[in-house]
């Protein structure tokens, strides 16, 4: 298990590194972008909505309310693709995190 980093002040010699400013000195001149958490939440909501839509389409087809199978299959395929995309993004994020954790400081 990797111990959490609590404070950078405890690392000897970090004060002698030049060129590093404090986070309060960093200014952004570009447009304000939405926070990562909001983007992630929206993406998860989209995957969940797609899954619910596919489930509703299947239930309507099985109960006989919907006669066209291609719309049901399209909804299921869309849900599968959305889930697969979310899974691949999650795998890339975890892989990037593991790569960063393996870096020597």
TrEMBL record:
GO terms for biological process: bacterial-type flagellum-dependent cell motility. This is Flagellar hook-basal body complex protein FliE. Keywords: Bacterial flagellum, Cell projection, Cilium, Flagellum. GO terms for cellular component: bacterial-type flagellum basal body. It is found in: Bacterial flagellum basal body. PANTHER family: FLAGELLAR HOOK-BASAL BODY COMPLEX PROTEIN FLIE, PTHR34653. Belongs to the FliE family. GO terms for molecular function: cytoskeletal motor activity; structural molecule activity. InterPro entries: FliE (IPR001624). The keyword Metal-binding does not apply.
